[in-house]
Amino acid sequence: MRSACLSLLLATACWALPPFRQSGFMDFMMEDEAGSGDRVSAPVVPDVVERGPVCPFRCQCHLRVTQCSDLGLKEIPSQIPPETTLLDLQNNKITEIKENDFKNLKGLHALILVNNLLSVIHPKAFSGLSKLQRLYLSKNLLKEVPANMPKSLQELRIHENAITKIKKSSFQGMTNVIVMELGSNPLKGNSIEFGAFTDLARVSYIRIADTNITEIPKGLPSSLSELHLDSNKISKVMADSLKGMKNLAKLGLGYNEISMVENGTLANVPHMRELHLDNNALTAVPPGLPEHKYIQVVYLHANKIAAIGTEDFCPPTFNYKKAMYSGISLFSNPVPYWEVQPITFRCVFDRSAIQLGNYRKK
Ligand SMILES: *[C@@H]1O[C@H](CO)[C@@H](O)[C@H](O)[C@H]1NC(C)=O
Ligand SMILES: *[C@@H]1O[C@H](CO)[C@@H](O)[C@H](O)[C@H]1NC(C)=O
Questions:
Q1: With a threshold of 0.90, does the pTM exceed it?
Q2: Comparing C-alpha atoms, which of 21, 39, 22, 140 is closest to residue 91?
């Protein structure tokens, strides 16, 4: 798995990067570099004299990248070169995006507004950006998802804002989105409306961690391969909430309050490889693991599991499981580990894959 992170631009948690090609912004620059070879070697002086180099004061404009980060800007600068494909405005003090701030940037691919003081975005601010693929709005003060985001968007990062509700209309028609990051917003109860994600027919990665949502959002698209819902207030996993999710490979539910995983849940996600249920309130191993063909990693540490049965992980006959377990964690549970019978893990060939460990009462 690729471990490249966008840490150059974002101090984001990046365990389990989306399967989406995350090679980052160098792409834009490389493309531009290749395409601009002619221009660089041509005599440029007369051109510059005629048109004048356009670049906002104190920003740097180079190869269609306009770099205006860390300048203490209070508003979107004017005179952004119209050929800009990447506009970096992160780490400023911008409070508002007005209707015409990005009006001339028809070729913009990526817009980075991370870590500003944005609370107002004009509903038409993004309407001309028909090529925009990446929109990074994390670490701002937005109370809602911006209206009328471009349909071309592939990646939306809007974590650490003040969003209290995800409406059914929030992502309407956004069929190109692949990655969506919505964590660390004051979402609670069921403040995600049913069907909010339905239009995202290509989405493969959704993360909604560190909120107060109490259930798995309903109506998630079947294209999803990673769903990260760690550090929320989810108390139950109902089979229905994962119905039809035939592509789901990773499900993160660590640090919730889950006491129950309904029978049939795992059968609804036949291609699951990795399930994180650590730091919850489970009293038993979730049902359905022996019948599951592909699951490899199951984190169950730091729960309230007091007993482990010999049929909890492995099928009665070999050659049933198509993928081998590569990680099972059970430490920090009240089960006395010397009482777990070795036969429980008869289908696990690499014994180092199992972490039973010690449980210490505090
Ligand atoms: C979740 O709820 C708690 C208690 O009401 C609150 O202190 C906390 O800020 C909330 N978290 C978020 C991300 O809104
Ligand atoms: C789950 O399903 C199994 C097999 O179908 C059944 O034996 C068990 O009682 C069920 N458990 C619950 C909690 O419904």
A1: no
A2: 140
